[in-house]
Every structure is written in C-alpha cells, then in structure tokens.
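My main concern about presentation is that the manuscript never shows what a single data entry looks like. In essence, backbone conformation is discretised, so a fold becomes a row of integers matching the chain in length. An entry of this sort, consisting of the sequence and the corresponding backbone structure tokens, reads as follows:
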Amino acid sequence: MAEDASAPSSTRSPPFGQGLMKDCWWFAALSSEVAVGSLKRYEMLGEPVLIGRTRDGRAFGLRDICPHRAAPLSAGRLAEQAGEGPTIECPYHGWRFKPDGACAAIPSLTADQDFDVERIRVRSYPVRESQGLVFVWIASDPRQPTEPDHEPPVFPGVVGGKPKLVERMDFDAHMDHAVVGLMDPAHGPYVHKQWWWRTEHSMHEKAKAFEPREFGWAMARHAPSSNSRAYKILGGAPATEITFRLPGYRWEHIQVGEKQVLALTCLTPVTENKTRITQIFWSDHWVFGLVKPFLRAGSKAFLKQDGDMVNLQNEGLRYDPALIWIDDADRQAKWYQQLKREWIRSRAEGRPFINPIKPETLRWRS
C-alpha cells in the first residue's frame, strides 16, 4: 500500500509490514505464569525482556541482559540482601540489580575501590497487571523513557474465575500481516472449513454496523450469522460484539441472557517477522464444562489453519508484491493502517490520539 509522501519524515508511518508500535502496552503473560520469586525470559519487539515477581507479589520488567558480560539476568536468581531489598543476581559474576534496574552491588569490588555502582542501570519496563494478565510498556526511546500516559485495556466478560482455555502459537509473520489476517472477514469459508463452523457452500451476503472505540473499532452487538453453527450450543439468543484495539487486541464478547463468553486474542510481536498469538477464553456459561475438550481442539485447528496460510502467504510476500485491497471486505485492514499511522504521528507530535474511524455499515459475502 502507498505511504503518505506528504507527511514529514519524522511522523511518516513505515510501509505496511514494517515497523512496530512503541509507547503502548503489549500483552506478555498470564499473571498465574509469573510465580513469586520467578524470573522469566520473554522476547518482545526484538528485545529480551525479563518479567519477575518479588516476594511481596510485585511484578517488574527488565532488559534481560547484564551490562557487564551480557549474560541473561533471568538465568540468575532473586536475592534478598540486608539493606538492599529484593535484587536480581546475575549468574555470571553476581552483580545485583534492583527491580527498577539500578545496580545494587558488584561483589568483585574491594572495600577500598571507589566505584559508584548506582550509575550502572539495566533498562526497566513498566509492568501492569489487570484481569489476570501481565502487560509491558515498550517506550520508543530507551534513553529517555517516558511514564505510560494510559492504562492497559479492560476487557468485558472476564467472568467465571480463571480462563477456561489458553492457546498459543507463533506465526512467521510481521505484526501487520497477523492483524489483517485476524480481522479479515472473508477467509473463513476457505481457510476454516469445518462441518461445525461453516463451509464455502454456506456463504451469503452480510451487512454489519461498525463504530469507533478507544484506539480501535467494534462490530456493534448483533445476532451471530446463521451459518456460524458453533454459537448454537450456547442456546437462547446469543448477541455478540467484536472489537479491535491497538496495538493488537481482538475480542469477541458474547451475551446469552445473564451468561457471558469472552474470546480474547492478543497479538505480541516477538521480532519483526514473528508474532505470538495468544487466545484466552473466559465464561460463566455451564456449557463450557462440557465442551472444553472440543473448544481446545477447535482453537488449535483454527490457529494451525491460520498458521499454514501465513506460511503459504509468505511464499508470495518474499517478492514484495503490491497488495490490492478492496471495499468492504478489506476495510478493516485499511482502518488498521490508518490507526497505526495516526498513533505514530500523534506520539511524534506530542498530541492526543484522534481516532480516524467513522461509523459505517460494511457488506461482504462470507
């Protein structure tokens, strides 16, 4: 897709399939996966990130590289020294760092050696926990990191206790292609061919109302399509709303009377060319106690089918072809580009984000 050549180079969005968003909250892990006293290594946006939890239960994030000899700090241990509080001890030479990244001690120094250890720091990342999820803020400038100016998203329908299902898969795709594939409404009958979902022969015309939401958009609440068979197991008259929000969250919130279902998909860039897809389901609907094995199998099947198509698509993308997007089936892909462009410009210009999306009804066959 063509880039806006009229924009100043400092605010110009990188071409589609290049560049990753900064100054925002990325999903990292479930809170239950970060145990007290643990040091866990993640790769996010090409950076090694240590996420740990102190003995008092506070989660923190550090760049997972010791500035001395580059050993991963996550391979060390959480130490407790008198007068220091909790520290992360490097496994190579025992250098200790506080959860905010400040160096607390260098054991190899002798008492008469004058060296200010506090001037040594490891990059720290703001961490938030919300609804049992861990989010990490990746700043655009690590030399002058700013404090987050907004909080992670709050999702409707986190009910029924812990998640009923969690599935993950890494796609060999840039974040942009992963998002567009996730929001694409027309590939289902061709990529996800299951008797219990829908088939190519069940395609018909659809018209859905969309509206802007915070940092994104939503397909307004509606009755599921008649050719989406899986909804029928919920009984009653389910009503669903599908939302996308920057930098990479897509969720479907279903209400069936007083019961709720939330299917949340979090996209997290591992590198420029690898994106982690995490699907999480919550519900207080009784049927989930019966269908959990089938839900797990279905979720794995969907992810594998999408992953296989990403690999097939990569065969063409390596030739850097121009992509032709049409209305209305590809409108959400265009919206994502507009949102990402506005995000980059608003941060560079130091102004509030302005959502460019307007209410609209889209029509397509699926």
Notes: Residues 288-317 form the longest helix (30 residues). The longest strand covers residues 259-271. Residues 1-6 have pLDDT under 50 and may be disordered. Helices lie at 175-183, 188-191, 288-317, 331-349.
